[in-house]
Design goal:
The protein has helices at about 5-25, 40-45, 75-85, 100-115, 140-145, 165-170, 195-200, 235-240, 270-280, 290-300, 300-330, 355-365, 400-420, and strands at about 30-35, 60, 65, 95, 130-135, 150-160, 160, 175-180, 210-215, 245-250, 265-270, 335-340, 350, 370, 390. The protein is of the alpha/beta class. The structure holds pyridoxal-5'-phosphate (PLP). Pyridoxal-5'-phosphate (PLP) binds next to helix 4.
Length: about 425
């Protein structure tokens, strides 16, 4: 028997074994969903008390304004102060949004498209408007730029954040108007940008005056462990570098309190902040400030938010650790996948063998486990290597996650063997 024939026989035997294990799982009739990073019901319940809060007549009057009524479009001063403390930005440059920071991001891109930043032509009258997209990244960021018909260029992620050599080169093109960033515990790979990356980001000299850094600090307080991973303050670094209008900093309490009743924030340089507030004034006369008060009262201050997040961490950490333990045990040393080991955030990123991600997701689906679609972490859902899969541990209970991940590991190996055999 030649070496290649022997190898083929071994592979066929391995495939048979995996196929048997796969069929046994299928027979269990699983129906599990690990597609999106939603908080579990136990996490949601941590904020139940917020709904029973009552206020006095006095509480409703802030700086002479009745917060139950119209007005105060920029948000309640206490809520602006809270995000100012959490994000390290001046409170007067913070605009409080509704329950969704994505809404603020959409509005910012819409403003660039319809009205223009810094007195520049709106993008709807410019050709080839382009956003830089660190990959793997957040699908809903890419969906916003896709909605407006903008070009997107993939920027590979490194362990320090986006490849800054490529970013520095590409911003010399005046068509490049923005970069999407999740700087802390990035979705999906959990990376926190290094100080060097943040400094290089702030020091960028884009050819386009209307270039902005869309800094989505969604996981600013979402540590899984007591020790946080520090992130340098982009707002301050941009000030120091003489680019005060470049950062657009977003965050929200969507995964802190109820996702549907949270508040969000955007901070921007003085001119950009004014423009954002002006654009908002055409959409509404004021947001729900009673809910803003509810959030502020629930936490008291930034330390109160951090203390609350420790309760979330206690619920999330065992889920992340259970998944990592199974990945280590089932796939470790087999050369069929590599995965991230996040210290915070909501996701684990797995790179399976090139050309196998779609097959793995499909095998899991047929086996009763829904995962985020392969390709979702790339613009236009196109992962050139067909390799990245995002795992969302937060929603299912640990026992379900364990089952789902055991099936996942079988599928990763099965797809790898199928690939080897086809070669
Ligand atoms: C990076 C990132 N930004 C924003 C969001 C959504 O935020 P919000 O609920 O405030 O719109 C998510 C949710 O998964 C996310 O991962």
């Amino acid at each position: 028997m030649t070496g290649s024939v022997a190898n083929k026989e071994t592979l066929l035997q391995k495939k048979q074994e995996l196929q048997r294990a796969y069929e046994a799982f299928k027979a269990q009739g699983l129906s599990l969903n690990m597609a999106r990073g939603k908080p579990s019901v136990e996490q949601i319940r941590l904020s139940d008390a917020m709904q029973n809060m009552t206020f006095t007549e006095e509480d409703y009057f802030v700086n002479g304004n009745d917060i139950r009524s119209y007005g105060m479009l920029e948000g309640l001063p206490q809520a602006r102060k809270l995000f100012s403390d959490l994000l390290g930005v001046p409170a007067e440059n913070v605009l409080i949004g509704t329950n969704s920071s994505l809404n603020l991001m959409f509005d910012a891109v819409a403003m660039g498209y319809t009205k223009g930043f810094s007195g520049c032509e709106p993008w709807c009258r410019q050709e080839n408007v382009t956003f830089l997209c660190p990959v793997p990244g957040y699908d809903r960021h890419f969906a916003i730029t896709e909605y407006f018909g903008l070009n997107m260029v993939n920027i590979p992620m490194t362990e320090d954040g986006p490849d800054m050599d490529q970013v520095e080169e590409l911003v010399k093109n005046p068509c490049v108007k923005g970069i999407w960033c999740v700087p802390k515990y990035a979705n999906p790979d959990g990376t926190t940008y290094s100080d060097e990356t943040v400094r290089r980001m702030a020091a960028l000299s884009p050819a386009a005056k209307d270039f902005r850094i869309y800094w989505d600090n969604a996981y600013a307080v979402h540590d899984l462990y007591d020790e946080t991973t520090p992130l340098l303050n982009l707002y301050e670094e941009c000030q120091k570098a003489g680019h005060p209008e470049m950062p657009l900093i977003f965050s929200s309490f969507a995964k802190v309190v109820y996702p549907s009743s949270s508040i969000s924030a955007v901070a921007a340089g003085p001119q950009t902040f004014k423009a954002l507030l002006d654009a908002a004034s055409y959409q509404m006369i004021g947001r729900d400030k009673v809910n803003q008060l509810r959030c502020v009262r629930f936490f008291g201050d930034a330390d109160g938010v951090k203390a609350h997040m420790k309760k979330h961490a206690a619920l999330l950490r065992p889920k992340f650790e259970a998944i990592l333990a199974i990945l280590d045990e089932e796939l470790g040393g087999k050369n069929v996948a590599r995965w991230s080991r996040p210290r915070g955030g909501y996701f684990i990123s797995v790179d399976v063998m090139p050309g196998c991600a779609k097959r793995v997701v499909e095998l899991c689906r047929q086996g009763g486990v829904t995962l985020t679609g392969a390709g979702a972490t790339f613009p236009f859902h196109k992962d050139p290597a067909d390799s990245n899969i995002r795992i969302a541990p937060s929603l299912p209970p640990v026992e379900e996650l364990v089952k789902a991940m055991e099936l996942f590991c079988i599928c990763v190996q099965l797809a790898a063997v199928e690939k080897e055999l086809s070669e």
